[in-house]
Design brief:
11 helices, 6 strands, three-stranded antiparallel beta sheet, alpha+beta, 221 residues
């Protein structure tokens, strides 16, 4: 078993380190991931992939999220499902945009562990670290497929990850209302962070926050 390789830096310097190492990824093959110092001890790194994890290479992350969303509508039904469907049609109130969160690990941690993960693309990190599958956290295979979809559609790249969070820089956030609502539906079933990070009581509130947002934060119980 190979340990997670990396080094500790002051939290205030961690994003600078991430951008510097991200720029070198094509040459080094090492993707930087910011973690709290205790996170590497919580992972089972670089183990041989299981058949389920290999299946992630064939998963469709967009279809996976869409299925979870439809499953939630079917499970709760009634007014809940009717309200979400109406919001997806654009019938919710588009309120002023609230203040958006930045990168939490870099902002709040006194020290940050910069992990160097040998992967060809950032969406492969959950597989390489065998990270996920507890509580509501997606399994490594599910997470990899979803991150591949986020990368292809939005240019999302993994910046930070712990046992309960994931944070991304985003190149192409949705700028139109329909696209933001579609992303909000995906985000809501991907993680539990719509209220904790975005103060969103409705799907439309979340869409307003995610529209034009170049940083995403996700959280699991």
């Amino acid at each position: 078993m190979t340990a997670v390789r990396g080094f500790l830096v002051p939290g205030e310097d961690s994003l600078e380190w991430w951008w510097r190492l991200r720029a070198q990824h094509r040459g080094t093959g090492l993707w930087p991931v910011l973690m709290t110092p205790e996170t590497p001890e919580e992972l089972t790194p670089f183990r041989i992939r299981t058949p389920e994890e290999e299946a992630a290479l064939r998963y469709d992350g967009a279809a996976l999220l869409a299925g979870w969303f439809e499953g939630r509508l079917a499970r709760y039904g009634g007014d809940y499902a009717d309200t979400l469907r109406a919001e997806l049609r654009g019938e919710g109130e588009w309120r002023p945009r609230p203040e958006l969160p930045g990168f939490g690990v870099a902002e709040y941690a006194e020290e940050v562990f910069v992990a160097l993960v040998p992967v060809a693309a950032p969406w492969q990190v959950p597989l390489a670290l065998h990270c996920g599958g507890w509580n509501e956290y997606p399994t490594p295979a599910e997470h990899a497929a979803i991150l591949k979809h986020f990368h292809a559609r939005y240019g999302a790249e993994l910046v930070a990850m712990t046992g309960t969070t994931a944070e991304f820089t985003v190149k192409w956030p949705p700028r139109d209302r329909a696209g933001a609502l579609r992303l909000a539906a995906e985000y809501r079933v991907y993680n539990d962070g719509e209220y904790d990070y975005y103060g969103a009581d409705t799907l439309t509130d979340l869409a307003v926050s995610l529209s034009h947002a170049t940083v995403w934060r996700a959280w699991w119980d």
